[in-house]
Amino acid sequence: MRKLFALLCLCSVVLACDTRRGSSTAPFAAELGTYALRTVSGKPLPVPLERLASGTVRELIADTIVLSSGGNAREIFYTRNFSTAGGDTSISSVAAAGKYTITRDSLRLPADFPYLFGRLSAGKISLVDSRGDVWVFTR
After folding, report:
1. What's the rounded Cα separation, in Å, for the pair 102 and 11?
2. Upstream peptide bond of 46 is cis (omega within 30 degrees of 0)
3. Long-range contacts of 39-48 (CB under 8 A, 24+ apart)
4. Which of 52, 76, 85, 126 is the least buried, fewest Cβ under 10 Å from its Cβ?
5. CA distance 61 to 71
6. Of 94, 96, 121, nearest in space to 109 by CA
7. What is the pLDDT of residue 28?
8. How does pLDDT run across 1-15, given as a tens digit for each residue?
9. Strands 23-24 and 101-103: what pairing?
């Protein structure tokens, strides 16, 4: 009985030290790194974001999220604007940075990132935006 009690105590300590069971800004080293956007709601890039009455189309061409130690996150979002009637094409980028947290396999990015919530597992980040689109990033 004492051996069983000692084993249960040891398991409790190990589980209490597991950063995935509670809120943490110090994830496992395997979770740190650069993640590139692969699909938005199952569609590969480029993905149309908006089409204006003038015939201008704005599409997403790339997006990268970097998770680094200390709970720091950076995102760079690239878009291309072009006219369906021909003419100039422009590429622009928007960058955001801030702190992230991981609770179990849930990922919470900074408020200025355009996502409501996300999941992080095995080299893959799945994020949901305010329209319900699922953004899938992989290493």
Report:
1. 22
2. yes
3. 39/135, 39/136, 40/133, 40/134, 40/135, 40/136, 41/133, 41/134, 42/134, 46/80
4. 85
5. 27
6. 96
7. 63
8. 443 333 333 333 333
9. antiparallel
